[in-house]
Every structure is written in C-alpha cells, then in structure tokens.
C-alpha cells in the first residue's frame, strides 16, 4: 500500500480583493473545456490562487466563468474550493438533460488527491461531492455525461506506476454505478504516427469514446469505448503522438463526418488521424491562430469529411 502524502498549507500574508468580491481572473484553463449550453451561454473553469481576506493562507481554487449570449461575463468562486485546500485539473461538461454544467476535479485536503464533483442547479453550485477515495492519488480526470450516466476516468498512482482507471456514476445523484476498474492498455494495439493498417481493430460505431494521454516521456495516447451498461471496457487502442507533438492535450476521439477521428493539441497545432477503410491515416497537422482554434479546426475536418462523403455518394 502506498502512503498518501501530506502537505502543509501554503502561507501568505496578503489579503486580496478577489476574496472580497472584485477583480479579474486569468488562471489556468483546462484545454478544450469551454462548453456552450442551450441558451448560448459559454462556461469554463479556471484554477486561481485564493487568498483569504482575514486568515493567512493561500491555495488553488476553482473559478466558474460564464459568458452570456449578449457578451455579459460573470466570474465567481466555486463554493467549497475557496478554502485552505488545493483544487486542480477541473473538467467541465454540460449535462444533456438539465443543460447545466457539471465539473469534476482533483482536490487535495492534505491526505492525498481525490476526485470531486459539483453541478450548477439554477444559479447555485451543489456542495462538492467526493466521488472516490482510494489509497492512491487520482489525477488528470476526464468526464462525459449521457442521459443516465456520468463517466469519469483518471490516472492513478499506486506506487508501482501510473495507470488509467474509470468508473460510472448515476447522472441524477452521482452515486457509484460501476467500478472503479483499471483500463488495461498494456496489451492494446499501437498505431504509429505514420498510420495503421487493417491490423488495428476498427472502432465499433455503437460505443462512446474516451481517452487519455500516458504521463511521462512517451506521451502515448489511448482511447477506449464505453457504454452506460455496467460492463468492462472491451475496445482499447493506442496511438503514438507525432514526433513534433510535445505535451499533447485537449484529446478528442469521436465520429466526424461519418469517420472516427482522433485529434489532440500540441502548442499552436492540432494533430489528427482519421480511420479509413484501410486503417488509420498518417497523423496530419493544422496550424491554429486567431479565430481558427481547436474547435473550429475540428469543425473544418468534419465539413471536409462530409463533403467527401457527399461527393462519393453522388458518383
């Protein structure tokens, strides 16, 4: 068993106006986590340094940003994170039933890092709920939501190495429905950045896909298929990142224009590969800049594939 680390609060003599209610925020944004709800409001969460106005401490806390369709911007601490403990790695999704944000993140209260969840109901955030508490540290979570389930995956360090794990929770009350379980990536076929032939298994069309980037120098990317039913993961496939892609992030694996597309960001570029009938293509690259961000690049890939599908269908 790995002993969970403890750490002291980070002391600070400063008393800052942020905690009193005014200021602008510019902290760390989890790449790709800007989400638009049905009303046209854009939501995202950043990690900010919280300094209490009366007590001498500072910590990493979460701030929710919301930009309404008329451009009006609001910024508020997420309650329960504005305290002496560190909160990091937030991931935000929109609940497809309530059309409101759900945030999953890592919280360290001194005895180790655990996964927490909160959701916006009306104008108020729910009290942070601990999803899991294990003898290992959880990190780098990912989350997706369906009509009935919340799917969460993360890295877990049990002292013998970092591994991918996942669990399924009920959408309504975040109660554990399946897992946690390890995702076995060690035996998964590996697609080169030069592409992969028919030896790589085809991605089933009846699955939803999640993925993670292996920590360390390899940066290998893995995707796996999930269902709402409490069944083990059966489809896992690995990819080598492009040689000039350092620290890949903002990973996406989904169908675009009738084809499975894996894409990820590195620096100012979006890298992607497409599953064709003969296998995965060589990794391609799009340069980002200005209004041409990762989301727009993915839309352009989808438009291109849809045009190709239309031309082929009309021949």
Please report the total strand number as a whole number: 23
Describe the largest sheet: 5 strands, antiparallel
How helical, in percent, are the residues?
under 10%
Total helical elements = 2
Percent strand: over 45%
Q: What value does the average pLDDT take?
A: 85
Structural class of the helix and strand makeup? mainly beta
What is the subunit organization of this protein? single chain
Summarize this entry quickly.
The protein is mostly beta strands. It has helices at 17-20, 294-314; strands spanning 28-29, 35-36, 42-51, 58-67, 73-77, 86-94, 101-108, 113-121, 124-125, 129-132, 137-145, 149-157, 162-170, 176-182, 190-191, 208-213, 221-226, 236-239, 249-256, 259-266, 269-276, 279-280, 284-287.
Descriptive notes:
The chain is mainly beta and 315 residues long. It has a domain at 1-139 and 153-174. Helix content is 8%, strand content 45%. It contains two helices and 23 strands. A hairpin with a 5-residue loop joins strand 13 and strand 14. The longest helix has 21 residues, at 294-314. The termini are far apart. Mean pLDDT is 85; it is low at 1-29.
List the helices and strands and how they pair.
Blueprint: H1 17-20, E1 28-29, E2 35-36, E3 42-51, E4 58-67, E5 73-77, E6 86-94, E7 101-108, E8 113-121, E9 124-125, E10 129-132, E11 137-145, E12 149-157, E13 162-170, E14 176-182, E15 190-191, E16 208-213, E17 221-226, E18 236-239, E19 249-256, E20 259-266, E21 269-276, E22 279-280, E23 284-287, H2 294-314
Parallel strand pairs: 15-18
Antiparallel strand pairs: 1-3, 2-3, 3-4, 4-5, 6-7, 7-8, 8-9, 8-10, 11-12, 12-13, 13-14, 16-17, 17-18, 19-20, 20-21, 21-22, 21-23
């Amino acid at each position: 068993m790995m002993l969970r680390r403890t750490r002291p609060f980070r002391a600070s003599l400063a008393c800052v106006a942020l905690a009193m209610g005014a200021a602008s925020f510019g902290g760390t944004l989890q790449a790709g986590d800007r989400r638009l709800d049905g009303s046209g409001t854009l939501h995202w969460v950043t990690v900010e340094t919280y300094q209490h106005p009366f007590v001498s401490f500072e910590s990493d806390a979460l701030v929710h940003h919301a930009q309404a369709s008329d451009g009006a911007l609001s910024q508020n601490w997420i309650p329960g994170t504005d305290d002496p403990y560190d909160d990091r790695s937030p991931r935000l999704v929109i609940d497809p039933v309530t059309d409101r944000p759900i945030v999953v993140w890592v919280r360290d209260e001194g005895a180790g890092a655990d996964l927490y969840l909160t959701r916006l109901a009306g104008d108020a955030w729910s009290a942070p709920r601990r999803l899991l508490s294990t003898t290992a540290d959880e990190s780098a979570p990912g989350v997706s939501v369906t009509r009935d389930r919340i799917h969460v995956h993360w890295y877990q360090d049990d002292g013998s190495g970092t591994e991918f794990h996942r669990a399924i929770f009920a959408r309504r009350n975040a109660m554990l429905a399946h897992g946690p379980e390890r995702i076995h990536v060690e035996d998964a076929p590996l697609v080169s950045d030069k592409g992969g032939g028919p030896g790589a298994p085809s991605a089933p069309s009846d699955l939803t896909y999640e993925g993670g980037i292996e920590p360390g120098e390899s940066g290998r990317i893995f995707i796996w298929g999930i269902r709402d039913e409490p069944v083990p993961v059966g489809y896992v496939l690995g990819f080598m990142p492009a040689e000039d892609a350092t620290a890949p992030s903002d990973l996406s694996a989904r169908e675009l224009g009738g084809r499975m597309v894996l894409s990820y960001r590195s620096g100012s570029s979006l890298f992607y590969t497409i599953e064709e009938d003969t296998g995965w293509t060589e990794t391609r690259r799009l340069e980002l800049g200005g209004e041409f961000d990762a989301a727009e690049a993915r839309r352009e890939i989808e438009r291109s594939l849809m045009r190709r599908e239309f031309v082929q269908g009309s021949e």
